Amino acid sequence: MSFFAYNKLLNMVDSEAYDSASEVPFPIDAPGCRNHHDSEGIVVLEYPDYDPATDYVNSLRVNAAGTALENPQKGKTFAEQKTIDEAYRNSTALKSTRVHKRGQLKGECAELIRVSAWEDVKAADTDAINGNDAATRALYEKRQKMRDQNSAAESTLLALTDLEEVKNFDVRSKSWYTP
Predict the structure, then answer these.
(1) What backbone torsions phi and psi does residue 161 show, to the nearest 5 degrees?
(2) Pairing outcome for strands 12-13 and 2-7
(3) Which of 50, 59, 101, 109 is least buried, going by the fewest C-beta atoms within 10 A?
(4) CB 149: neighbour CB atoms within 10 A?
């Protein structure tokens, strides 16, 4: 029987194996730990029959009851467990990086629109002088173009399937917006 610190936020074991729950350092700050001091996100859980030769620690997950750890990859070789875990982590990293970059893209578009706010007054003045709404309509079309190009950049981002490509995707408006 072994005990581990488990990071619920990262969904992973956050310590080495200990013989008793009282031996697990809390807050987690010991050699081999990732030094997360979030007492709400870290729990100490038991994993019966832990064998470091056959159980890949990062494969351990909380059971359905939330009371202990289990290895959903039990029965697979150590190397297979490691490969499955790496694929899971890469997939999670890809999704979270996309979400983060998507938020940055939306922020860039919002900033483009925000900095064009002064043009509202100019367009209204021009329209008043000319007796029409051509300048205001042109401004609205310009902003719609910003949104459309942002949506196209977002679609490009979401279509990427390689983590490095997503990481290297430039979210700055100068890379996707053409006035």
Answers:
(1) -120, -5
(2) antiparallel
(3) 50
(4) 17
CA angle 149/150/152 to nearest 5° reads 65
* Kind plus residue range of the DSSP H or E element containing 126: helix 118-130
Query: DSSP label at 3?
Result: E
Q: How far apart are CA 67 and CA 47, in angstroms?
A: 10
Q: Token match 């992973």: residue?
A: 12
169 Ramachandran zone, left/alpha/beta (phi>0; psi -120 to 50): beta
Token pair, residue 81, equals 């467990």
Largest distance between two CA atoms of the chain = 83
User: Under 8 Å CB-to-CB from 160, ≥6 apart: which residues?
Assistant: 98, 166, 169
Q: Which two tokens stand for residue 125?
A: 């003045």
Q: Among all chains, which residue has been given the structure tokens 């995707």?
A: 169
CB atoms within 10 A of CB 36: 17
pTM over 0.85: no
Q: How far apart are CA 159 and CA 132, in angstroms?
A: 42
Question: What angle do the packed helices 134-159 and 78-115 form, to 10 degrees?
Answer: 170
Over the stretch 73-106, which tens digit does the pLDDT of each residue have? Answer: 999 999 999 999 999 888 989 999 999 999 999 9
